[in-house]
Amino acid sequence: MGNSRYVFNIKGNNFRLVVKIMFTIKRVYIRWIGTHKDYDRIKNIESI
After folding, report:
1. Residues of the chain where predicted confidence (pLDDT) is lower than 70
2. How many domains does the chain have?
3. Angle, alpha carbons 23-41-43 (nearest 5°)
4. What number of other Cβ atoms are within 10 A of residue 34's Cβ?
């Protein structure tokens, strides 16, 4: 996805989890979680 952001499909692709992974400091930040339908409504995915 870019900008150290990764998208994971959860529960048989019913939900999506967007995280930012900072490998240098060994941290994972949850940026967003919701349904695929809600994910598709996001206008600018880079803003989350």
Report:
1. 1-2
2. 1
3. 70
4. 14
